[in-house]
Amino acid sequence: MRFISGRLIIGLAVLVIGVVLLFNNLGLGIEIEIREILRLWPVIPLVLGLNWLFMSFGSAEGSAGKKVFFSWGQFFTALIAIAVGVIFLGRNLGLFKVDTTLFFNLLWPVVLILIGFNLLRGKTQSSGKGGRFVFMGGANVGSGEPWKLEGGSYFAFMGGIEMDLTKAEVPEGETVLDLTAIMGGIEVKIPHDLAVIYEGSAVLGGVTFKDQEDGGIIAGRKVEHNIDKSTGRKLRIQARAIMGGVEIKEA
Fold first, then answer.
1. Residue 189 burial by CB count (10 A; 0-12/13-18/19+): exposed, middle or buried?
2. DSSP-derived 3-state class of residue 103
3. Domain locations along the chain
């Protein structure tokens, strides 16, 4: 369940700053220092963190009905965002003095460790010959004509890959697609009746499977889709996004 949209929070903050600037420049009698408003910027990560904290406990519809889940990645991201909000808001308002050097000295090495771990885990289990590597460019995989899908690794670095599996001939057994987007994006369209096992993770990015979104400092989710309707053909998607995004959606 989504309580508050992050886009809504940031949009409201930008709107308030714009209105204050307009009133000040037109001399309409409202004299508010922009610096005073900007001191409140930690409210944004604080509210987002509280939102993510609630969202880390939830439920989702699966092939076996509604399933309760706990997103440890989103929970971890929420704690970081709340800590940033509390520390900097308290400091900016003069409530307490905090040396943030240790916080950032620990944060960025941890983020780099998470990125390295995320890249090393979940190697492709398929011996298929499919795959693409895109660097600062784009690629399209699939078309309106039937074509044979093969497992493989798809890597987008500062670029994009669009895959259309709606006309793909999925072979018998399990086909594995390993998707990695670094400062780029990968979008995959799947037919509504395809059996899919989805394993998505993100570090400073976002991954989406249909209407289930995960993102932040670190996030992850595993979803089984149409497994009870499987006819022997199954697609396993291992998706990871680092400062980028991967989206799986039904056509």
1. middle
2. helix
3. 6-98, 130-250
